[in-house]
Amino acid sequence: MLAVVGLTLTACTSSSAGSGNSDQNSVSPELAAAVDGAVENALALSGSTEAVIGVWQNDDAAYVRGYGEGVSAKTTFRGAQTTQPVVCALLLDLVGSGQLELDREVAKDLPRQPGIAGVTYGQLCDQTSGLADYNRGLTDRFTNVPARSWPEQELIANGLARSPLAWPGKNVNLSDTNALLLDRAIRLNSRQDTAELLTRRVFDPAGMGATSYPENFAETEIPSGSMTPTAYPVAGGTPLCEAGVTEITELSPSMVRGAGASLTTVTDIKDFYSKYLSGGFGGEKASKEVTEFLPAENPERDENGEPTSEPDTEGRQIGFAVEKIGPLMGRAGVMTGSITAAYSDPTTGLSVVVALNNSSAGPSFAQALAFQLAALTGAELPWSAEDQGALLTERAVCQTEG
User: How does strand 323-325 pair with strand 350-356?
Assistant: First the structure.
């Protein structure tokens, strides 16, 4: 049984919280041991050989480290959906400076793009655009042919082929197409490169000194200093366990365009969410969007689009590029070769970020690990460490009985 241990400062620490992208250990030995045990278990269950994790509370105590040979807090990885909110932070900054408006129709900046009539910039972030996720039907190829370059128009077209979803402008649906289209629209509206915009208007203000966005999506070389990406080959969405884990030597970042391709660290992600969730982008008027959420379970609606059932205000909620589960806000993500999760409670300051180097277990596995680590701190949450540990066991990949 995993013990729940409060996140408390120790008299003698190896480093202090807030020390940038370096290993930190300013928590009790009991908590550090509990986190280590949970991560080692998750590594085995997911078929991963490397991981990086960070646990923070109010910047008074932190445990940040890597697992695996040569892996540390400085080790980088692609953020996938975990870093997608940075493009919405960019949107808020542009809105705050008067360069864009949330209710501006995207088609005004992408006039040759069919299938987006009526979609606004704001809807791309609050997930009410009605655009379907472009990943459907492509995930096997993302895994089995990881070096394949994916033009953004091809991915957009795959999402639009199944759009619009029911009740655009009202129903919420998390969709990678939203971030991808937003990236393209901002780039063409501003006539500036996305990498430059993100660095100047998001990464630098958030103190994300180790984070970068690809300037060349044709580059497939694994960046120096990053986790070693691995995965099981798949068929029909099912890992081919008998084939064994494959180490990926070339990986195209183009499969997660729209800020998901950001190369980052656990501490940089934590610093981003701290600023984003506290209203740090776009000024008071724009940043209030971040605190507004809708139930993830869309209601039944009448012919006028009015709900015919009560909304689920206690369950999972969807907001401005993030989800809210209990008091924690953030995202979980997957890209061939890694899974990630980052969640924060802006009220208490609790933050947890995790990354593992085998993508086969999927984003829900990374989320369960993040929630387990959050519970180990003793925070008041609607789940226990044991609950999340059981979910990790259920979501394990390629495990043999015995």
Answer: unpaired
